[in-house]
Design a protein that fits this description.
138 residues, alpha/beta, five-stranded parallel sheet, 34% helix
Length: 138
């Protein structure tokens, strides 16, 4: 009687940090900077794509980084929805100074609210503080 192979553990979606930014320069520079430090990153061109990836179970991010610049979908309501979907994942929001007041009510649910002008290094340092690179290797 042939033996059945042991059941493999169920594979969940990848544990890549989720970066959404409609601003291609911020997305590219942040992505490269994080990858150089060893982070696995899924970088998408806006929050609607990030929400879709989560809802389709394509990613289970250990940290969420949402840039609101030029992203019509990155409203406070949609960011609150993102937090509801993944309440245990630290959520970092990057916004512009004149929109800061719109995102202030979310602050209790945010790990960080970064306000432009901000350097990419500040974004990376925030990610490193919230999710040390060693926490992503498994």
């Amino acid at each position: 009687m042939p033996s059945t192979p042991p059941a493999e553990p169920a594979q969940g979606p990848p544990r890549r940090l989720l970066l959404t930014s409609a601003d291609w320069q911020t997305r590219a520079l942040t992505l490269v900077s994080l990858k150089e430090l060893g982070y696995e990153v899924l970088a998408l061109p806006g929050l609607r794509y990030g929400l879709r990836a989560i809802l389709q179970d394509r990613v289970d991010p250990p940290l969420l980084l949402v840039d609101t610049k030029d992203d019509d979908a990155a409203t406070p309501e949609q960011i609150a929805r993102l937090h509801e979907l993944l309440p245990d994942a630290p959520l970092v929001v990057l916004t512009e100074a004149w929109y800061r007041a719109s995102y202030e009510p979310l602050r209790p649910n945010l790990a960080a609210l970064l306000v432009r002008p901000v350097m990419v290094q500040e974004i990376v340092e925030t990610v490193q503080r919230l999710l040390p690179p060693s926490a992503t290797s498994a």
